[in-house]
Amino acid sequence: MPEVRDRTVPSDPAAGSAVEPGPRPPARARRTTGWLTGWGFALPFAVLFLVFTAGPVLASLVMSLSDLRSADLLDPFGVDVVGLDNYVRLFSDEKFLTAAGNTAVFVVVGVPLTMALSLLVALGLNSGLIRFRTLFRVGYYLPVVTSIVAISVVWRFVLQPDTGLANEILGFFGVDGPNWLNNETFALPTLIVMGAWRNLGFGMVIFLAGLQAIPKDLYEAATIDGAKRFAQFRYLTLPMLRPTMLFVAVITTIGYVQFFEEPFVMTQGGPLDSTLSMAYATYNQFGFGNYGYASAMGYVLFVVVVLLSIAWFKLLRNDVDD
Amino acid sequence: MTRPSRRRVLLVAVTAVALAASACGRDSENAGPQQGEEVAEGKASGEITVWAMGTEGEKLSVLADDFMKENPDAKVTVTPVPWDGAHNKLAAAIAGQETPDVTMLGTTWVGEFAKTGALDVVPPDFVREADFFPGAWDTGVVDGTSYSVPWYVETRLLYVNKAVAEKAGITEAPKTWDDLKQAVKDMQAKGGAKWGTYLQPGQMGAWQTVMPFVWQNGGDIHDGSKFTLDSPQAVEALEYYKSFYDEGLSTKDRLREGETEPKVLSGEIASFVSGPWHIGLLNELGGEGKYDLWPMPGGSGEFTSFIGGSNMSVFKNTKNRDAAWKFVSYLMRPEVQVKWYQTVSDLPSVQAAWDDETLAGDAQLKVFGDQLDKAKAPPSIPTWEQIAAGVDTELEKVAKGASSAADAAKAMQAQATSIGTGG
Amino acid sequence: MTDTTTRTVPRPAVARLRSRDRIAKAVLYVLLFGGLLVVVGPFLWMLLSSFKPEGEIRADPPTWWPNDPTFANYGNLFDRLDFPTYFTNSAVVAVLTTVGNLLFCSAAGYALAKLPFAGKKALFGIVLGTLMVPSIVTMVPLFVLTSNLGLVNTLAGLILPYLAQAFGVFLMRQFILSIPDDLLEAARMDAASELRIFWQIVLPLCRPALATLGILTFLASWNNFLWPLVAATGEETYTLPVALALYAIGQNRTEYDILLAGAVVVVLPVLIVFILLQRHFVRGIATTGLK
User: Fold this and answer.
1) CB distance C6–A215 less than 8 Å?
2) Are C98 and C217 in contact, with CB atoms under 8 Å apart?
3) Which of B256, B65, C177, C93 is CA-nearest to residue A10?
4) Closest chain C residue to the Cα of B77, Cα to Cα
5) B275–C143 C-beta distance less than 8 A
6) What is the mean pLDDT of residues A259-267?
7) What is the CATH number of the domain that holds C191?
8) C155 and C23 in one domain?
9) Are the C-beta atoms of residues B187 and B271 closer than 8 Å to each other?
10) Are both C35 and C149 inside the same structural domain?
């Protein structure tokens, strides 16, 4: 695992609050017991995690260096090590490269869009509303839990070229709307909007929780200081929300680098591969039984997410004045 | 196929996966056609576990109960498996050696799972090839060895809106490609349909629509030694397919599941190609009596359609092999096949079952039955799904005018050749 | 933002603020209701269509209100599915998975956020790293492992692989990071044990985070499809999504009537969990006030 990340881990989350750092007992004995207690807290998780998550992940990493195919399933260890061959092949695999391009667009546009929408909704719902609060919270969460089949039926209906709601609204403004899902230019942007729509409830829930962690008296102090709302948001809410934003950013990035369901139900990767994603290509290779090759694809996804996450950690690190 | 260095994976050290590593290298040599071992006479006994997908899995216990009445010492447990994910489940089960005794397999999966070495060879005296539709039997044969027995079948016909066809003055099903083209044109021009037909414009599964054209034209996918996707016959078939889009007879937009039926019944689309399940789908929308079934036309004299369905296989590591095969062969008895048709509407793979009045007396079914004699499946090679996906991509380019028939054929051939037959 | 203004502000200013507040609030409600229409559409269609016969569900164009409402889809669903078994399996798996994650992830998250120990960075790195590997990649190795542990076709086999997830630890760590160290140090000065600090200070402050983790873990576990399908080799350990896929998605067709009725039944527990837990999205104690 890359170690780079650790340097950028927020070190002092309370920075920016009005608190003075308290005195720390530096005694050595304290540190040793600290180790013990630290591991004591982490151990139950660590054991389960290493066995059931890290183990299979490691095995799959080795798989990506082999030529394992479904024909070898009875004897998975009887395969040949091909080193980085699978990875090299990937970079001349036209489909995969197309998919990588589509995925990049999806992530670069989709992640900020989704985060902004979720944050907006969370702020709206957190701004002292009393009435309908639960209704709103549940409502905006519904796309997350609605059956993807129902979602696809309704969206497809809305996106119908001739009779769909989307084009009727555009027609009202004199715009002749495109055939959204069957047009190579518009299919991917359409799925990005759909992705943001489906996932904003997820971000909203986490932002809502994160907003509660910001001490109320900080706001009170800011109000007394006459801070304008936007200034309050810019200099108080945003910095305090950084650990939460980092989490949402990383998780949303992971989800979007692996985006799959939207093209799977809406376009099957078409038209002409314009919505084929990397995760979809990986899924297909698994279906074809090319386990080694498919795993290599999975690890390319992994590397992409790691790099993006490092970027997020750098961008959202907790120094207020960077 | 040449392979790079033959070192074995040294997984043992890294595994939290505590699998005993009895690495024995890869079996690359082909042992040639094999014969299944004999099955002992007498009644079946002991436990038999069966996996079956979807509706078949849900209802198979009906037949299993009958079987147990006949074989009181046998106990059949059917586990229904969702189609969605079934392939993954089987693959994992083989890797973890957690397979049942008997499993249902999609016809295009047989090549792949046979290559794992997990499937038992069909005992030839016990299940006889001659009983089945030849196209169906071939789906279970891999490198000359039979690993799987066709259980039920389906084939594709043209569904045609009756009113539109009548308005266009068409009185009988077209016999040749030219006739079909003319009929489609007429249904659009005179019959009032927006689209004379709907041919799937590429993407997943489009090969099932187009390969029959290749077969009808005397071409094939593989001639036993090499792929022949760029043969003149194949190119011609692709050109025929392409012409429907170029002439504006079929939409280039992919219709999603559920979109076709209402459009066909309303006459917006005059015809489309599909399998027997569409009878039920159309009838549920009130379409009974509103459509006709046309058999496939001939290109150069052949009238071939696609054959699909599902097979039954026995796993090699079964502890109850004889009973497992007895259960499989029970399912293939003509009277049991008829009962199965009555239970879930699956078409019998056994030819004799079609003589039964239940099937012979049904005019719609008869068209399917006749077509089944002239229906073909793709070669049962483990790489077929991957090759088919490449074909589907090229077909989309052809349909959307992004590629010529000849270029697409060349691309299909090149991809298929580089993927190989997985041998 | 907040509805509190302080008494120290002169009266006319308060009045001005109040009326601006009121307008702002009205605008906000309009916006939120507008957004609500956009987000609930498909859910409403799913709900309404679950009372339509299959033919109407597949009508083109689709209808909103059922022409002829019927409970037949639900009747059908409960007739064909061994509902109690699947529901129990799903509930046991989802509840235990959720409780396990709440416990293990908050403890580990606390350690990673606030306690110094050797290997901490490595552990966090590995946790984050595995989060980024697509799960389908590990399916076969995980199954082989489960098989060797003898857990295939048991509920334990469905639960254990998900009992301690990277997602939860990452979430809890991020939230616990924002708890001021001074609060914990103050307690340590009072010679409180780490366990007590965790239990009496950290966890109560984490209520919103725990609620979030509970909601998300329950949802993921409840809807999980591929692993329960692969790991259950017999019908008796099937969960609801597996059973629903079995009945609703055929080889060549989807049975929308069963599918939509099933989707509604499946979503209810998720919504109940959400409604119950979202109440905890309230501010923790005013942390900076404690010194």
Assistant:
1) no
2) yes
3) C177
4) C234
5) no
6) 89
7) 1.10.3720.10
8) no
9) yes
10) no
Rounded distance, CA A226 to CA A229, Å?
Answer: 9
For residue B311, give both structure tokens: 């097979």
Considering the domain architecture, whether residues C114 and C168 belong to the same structural domain is answered as yes
Kindly state the tokens that stand for C179. 């708890």
Contacts of A209 in chain C (CB under 8 A): 175, 208-209, 211-212, 281
Q: How confident is the model at residue A234 (pLDDT cuts 50, 70, 90)?
A: confident
Structural domain total, chain C: 2
Assess if residue C147 is contained within a domain.
yes
B:C CB pairs within 8 Å: 105
Judge: A9–C45 Cβ closer than 8 Å, yes or no. no
Q: How do residues B113-151 score in pLDDT, each as one tens digit?
A: 998 999 999 998 888 999 999 999 999 999 899 999 999
Listed by number, the residues of chain B in 91-130 with a beta carbon closer than 8 Å to a beta carbon of chain C are 91-93, 95-98, 100, 106
Query: Mean pLDDT score of chain A, rounded to an integer?
Result: 83
State the residue range of the domain holding C23.
1-44
Does residue C166 belong to the interface with chain B, where contact is any CB pair within 8 Å?
Answer: no
Nearest to B58 among C60, C247, C252 (CB): C247
Side chain identity, residue B209: T
Residue in C116, C134, C254 nearest the CB of A282: C134
What distance in Å separates the CA atoms of residue B86 and residue B116, rounded to the nearest whole number? 17
> For residue C64, what pLDDT is reported?
86
As a whole number of angstroms, the distance between CA B83 and CA C250 comes to 6
Which string of DSSP letters, residue by residue, matches chain C?
A: --S---TTS-HHHHHHHHHHHHHHHHHHHHHHHHHHHHHHHHHHHHHHHTTS-HHHHT-SSPPSS-SS--SHHHHHHHHHS-HHHHHHHHHHHHHHHHHHHHHHHHHHHHHHHH---TTHHHHHHHHHHHHTS-GGGGHHHHHHHHHHTT-TTSHHHHHGGGSS-HHHHHHHHHHHHTS-HHHHHHHHHTT--HHHHIIIIIHHHTHHHHHHHHHHHHHHHHH--HHHHHH--SGGG--HHHHHHHHHB-SS-B-HHHHHHHHHHHHHHHHHHHHHHHTT-S----GGG--
Mutate to test the interface with A, among B9, B30, B317 (most CBs of A within 10 A): B9
The answer to whether B254 contacts A51, with C-beta atoms less than 8 Å apart, is no
Is residue C38 one of the residues assigned to a domain? yes
Residue B103: DSSP 8-state: E
Structural domains of chain B sorted by starting position, each given as residue range(s) with its CATH number in brackets: 39-154+307-376 (3.40.190.10), 157-305+382-419 (3.40.190.10)
CA angle A277/A267/C73 to nearest 5° reads 120
Closest Cα in chain B to A52: B16
Asked if residue C259 is part of any domain, the answer here is: yes
Q: Which residues of C touch A137 (CB under 8 A)?
A: 274, 278, 281
Residues 6 or more apart whose CB falls under 8 angstroms from that of A7 comprise none
Q: Computed over its alpha carbons, how large is the radius of gyration of chain A? A: 24
Q: Which domains are assigned to chain A?
A: 4-11+87-315 (1.10.3720.10)
CA C167 to chain A, closest CA, distance in angstroms equals: 8
* CA–CA separation, A129 and A111 (whole Å): 27
CA distance A208 to chain C (A): 7
Which residues from chain C sit within 8 angstroms of residue B261, using beta carbons? Answer: 58
**C-beta atoms of A182 and B6 within 8 A:** no
On whether any CB of chain A is under 8 Å from the CB of B21, the answer is yes
* Tens of pLDDT, residues B181-205: 999 999 999 999 999 999 999 988 9
CA distance linking residue A93 with residue C133, whole number of Å: 21
Q: Please indicate if any CB of chain B lies within 8 Å of the CB of C17.
A: no
Interface predicted TM-score (ipTM): 0.84
Is the Cβ pair B17, C141 closer than 8 Å?
Answer: yes
Which residues in chain B have Cβ-Cβ distances shorter than 8 Å to A273?
393
